[in-house]
Amino acid sequence: MNGSNQTAIEETVNSDNIMIEMIKVSRTYEPNITALSDISLSVETGEMFFLIGRSGAGKTTLLKLICNMEVPTKGLIEVAGYNINQLKGKDLAHLRQKIGVAYQDFKLLSERTVAENIAIAMEVSYKKPRAIKQRVRDLLDQLLLADKHNSITSDLSRGEQQRVALARAVANSPRLILVDEPTGNLDASTTKQVMELLNRSKMAGATIVIATHDASIYQQSTHRVMELRNGAIHSLTRGDQ
Amino acid sequence: MNFWFAVFRQTGRNLRQTWTSQFMTFLTVSLSVLIFAFFYLIYTNMLGTGDRLSDDLRLIVYLEEEPGSEMKEQLRRKIKNFDDVEEIIFVSKAEAYEHFVTQLGDDSDVLTGMPENFLPASIEVVPLKSLRGYNQIKLFSEYLASLPGTEKVQYGQEWVERFYYFTRLITIVVLLSGMLLILTATFMVAYTIRLTIMGRKDELELLRLVGATNSYIRTPFLLEGILQGFMGSVIGLSALYCLFQWISVHFAGPGILNLFQFNFFSFRVILLIILGSIALCSLGSYSSIRKFLKF
Ligand SMILES: Nc1ncnc2c1ncn2[C@@H]1O[C@H](COP(=O)(O)OP(=O)(O)O)[C@@H](O)[C@H]1O
Ligand SMILES: [Mg+2]
User: Fold this and answer.
1) Which residue of B has its CA nearest to A1?
2) Contacts of A121 in chain B (CB under 8 A)
3) Which domain holds residue A45?
């Protein structure tokens, strides 16, 4: 359906070097909570970008703004060259198929199986059932969840659910992956598996934004790290600095 | 192609998840179709019978005495004054007697000794096809009775009267059952689909977030309505057909059914009922989609 639009999005992704453009973005909640104020930020295509800060600093809000789950009170947000707040209907749907999000609260369908939960992201872009099956098995293998394929999602531990949420986010090979606290409930070795999966996606060309508390996953890297404090940018450094 | 595959898969999931209420809706729709179609079948057959009856409908005006040719012309003019008619036939006393003799056939010897002019002369008036309604026939007969030199007018008054009243009653019942069908089909389907949508709010929300298009989300529900309408009407009509067959077999032979010459719906009417039911059920599902899936 509407193939021309999809290719238009892809072309922009390839031709433009900037995946996320935010200019003076603010978000306030009633009555007078300022979740984010005056955020300006560019994330390059193919970059892995870390977002840190205390609980309540505004990390989740920033990710929600990027995927148009929330709308900014002020400012401009462009994703892959599109003003995401002006996209509607099919165009918005097609752009969202290119954005994978692992939500902090997972948003898994608790009565469905693990495989079904992951498949949803691929079904909406009409991938073939065989391809979906293959991809789901691969991802579960990579995340050490192969034996949970047919488990009902609500029966899993939080750490397992977290990985299912991540698997769903990367399943459709999106161009942009937003991950909210991906390692919060994981031990060191599972954390390593998760980061390997995200690195593989980055190798494949995806842009990745990770909101985290966990210093261990960015400290040794050369990736950019932005710290938020009370909704404002406190610092923007490299992980190894 | 892939779109429709996805839509059918999703529709199957919907049906599986809420199959009890789906089944109830399906039963209600079939029952409404059955009730409506039952009365509509009676109605169409009555109309057919009515047509046949009024084809043979003629008013017989008995005259006090044999009219002369002048008088015949006058009567003819008077009758046509009221309304144009299909045909006017004068029957003289002698013709009436002859007619009677042929009717009696072998038994005609009972007439031996009777004078050949004991039957009255009469006029047979065949009204125009447009003069159908019971009231019009009645008015016409009253007019004919008021003509000078007439004795009485006959056309099977009681029979015609009852028949027309019955037709009117059936018309009302058909309209009522039609309304019942409209209400149940639209509301029950709207209700079940609302139930499905409510039960899957999380999933529909998530589908939007992962980039499902509106048609991906909505079409399965519309399809569900179409399916309900189709299945409901097909089963309802099939049940009526079985009933019809059963009655035909068990009440065959001389009787009121033979007089009516009962027929089942034509293919066109069957198709129309199915399409109507589909349209109503789709309308019901569409209204729920509009109300609960707007974004
Ligand atoms: N829907 C909302 N309504 C009101 N306040 C909100 C809402 N979402 C977030 N906030 C507030 O915005 C601030 C930033 O929250 P959040 O982005 O979730 O922080 P983080 O993810 O860094 O922990 C917090 O003070 C939070 O209470
Ligand atoms: Mg958060």
Assistant:
1) B3
2) 210
3) 3-238
What distance in Å separates the CA atoms of residue A57 and residue A55, rounded to the nearest whole number? 6
pLDDT in tens, A76-121: 999 999 999 998 888 999 999 999 999 999 999 998 999 999 999 9
Question: Ligand 1, atom 7: nearest CA belongs to which residue?
Answer: A29
Query: In this structure, what is the dihedral angle of CA atoms A216, A220, A221, A225, given to the nearest 10 degrees?
Result: 60
Segment holding B240, helix H or strand E: helix B214-250
Which among A85, A75, A78 is positioned nearest to A37, based on CA atoms? A75
Q: How far apart are CA A93 and CA A80, in angstroms?
A: 14
Render pLDDT for B140-182 as a digit per residue (tens, 0 to 9): 888 888 888 888 888 777 777 777 788 888 889 889 988 888 8
- Which residue, among B42, B25, B46, B35, has the nearest Cα to B237 in the 3D structure? B35
Residues facing residue A201 across a β-bridge: none
Give pTM, 2 decimals.
Answer: 0.75
The ipTM of this complex is 0.87
Query: Which domains are delineated in chain B?
Result: 3-53+164-293 (no CATH), 58-154 (3.30.70.3040)
Measure the CA–CA gap between B243 and B233, rounded to whole angstroms: 15
How do the residues of chain A divide into helix, strand and coil, expressed in percent and rounded to 5?
A: 40, 30, 35
Residue type, A117: N
